[in-house]
């Protein structure tokens, strides 16, 4: 018989959510540093930003055809539920989830939207000397491009704040509630308290993810002229 204190090792994140996450971390980390400091800016900022577009397209579609806990629509939880989750967290007693929790879901949506705006705005802007130009730079009026450049700068700061809060929250879960969310994002597995039955998660065949990422890189590449 399993005691109510015993734990089972169960799957939570599929390989493609994990690869998406860590590739995004490296790419956004690089883009923020290269944008702010100029490090490898002219060589890589544009290409890595365009790669992020392919990653985002992948994540959007994976939200529909990927594993059931990757869905994006389901992340839009009742805000009251999100607040009650945060209140539980402050008391150090958060319930287990086999996916994003009600508050984390909103954070994921805001982060993905901010990053999408950043990557798309990059396509329409150029630096002062026009040494680096987005693929669609010149398609909009110069006034609109300048406005987008300002927003690209402003939104970069917003992304930094979001990332700082995101990482701080991950450590807060660990220190306040004893929930290690990092290990599952690396290994794909979590320790589930056997007192309750874990929710069912339907995992998609990883080969589908491999085909999808190739298609997304191909589609973005075609639209922004990688193969021209
Ligand atoms: C998610 C993707 C992206 C992130 C996180 C990002 C981040 C940044 C950051 C932090 C800056 C500096 C802002 C500042 O100085 O206040 C910047 C500037 C810039 N980025 Fe991006 N970027 C992204 C995508 C792109 C793309 C796809 C392009 C396409 C060419 C691009 C082109 C530029 C240009 C032209 C500047 C302005 C440089 C200047 O003012 O001299 N970015 N970006
Ligand atoms: C540039 C930095 C980062 C960005 C842009 C970022 C973005 C994201 C996004 C978009 C998700 C949702 C994943 C999905 O469903 O597709 C996520 C989840 C997650 N991230 Fe990050 N992340 C960053 C850095 C980090 C770091 C440094 C850590 C570890 C300390 C981390 C740990 C996690 C964990 C554990 C989750 C899952 C949270 C949960 O269980 O609900 N992230 N992150």
Report on this model:
- This protein is mainly alpha-helical and about 230 residues long.
- It has a single domain (about 15-225), classed as Fumarate Reductase Cytochrome B subunit, CATH 1.20.950.
- It contains seven helices and two strands; from the N terminus they run βααααααβα.
- The chain has helices spanning about 15-35, 40-65, 80-90, 100-120, 140-175, 180-185, 205-225; strands at about 5-10, 190-195.
- It has a two-stranded antiparallel ribbon with strand order 1-2.
- Helix 1 runs antiparallel to helix 2, helix 2 (about 40-65) packs across helix 4 and helix 2 packs across helix 7.
- The relative contact order is 0.19.
- The model has no long low-confidence stretch (mean pLDDT about 95).
- The structure holds protoporphyrin IX containing FE (2 copies).
- One protoporphyrin IX containing FE binds near residues 108 and 166.
Write a brief structural summary:
With 228 residues, the chain is mostly helical. It has one domain (13-223): Transmembrane di-heme cytochromes, Chain C (Fumarate Reductase Cytochrome B subunit), CATH 1.20.950. The protein is built from seven helices and two strands; from the N terminus they run E-H-H-H-H-H-H-E-H.
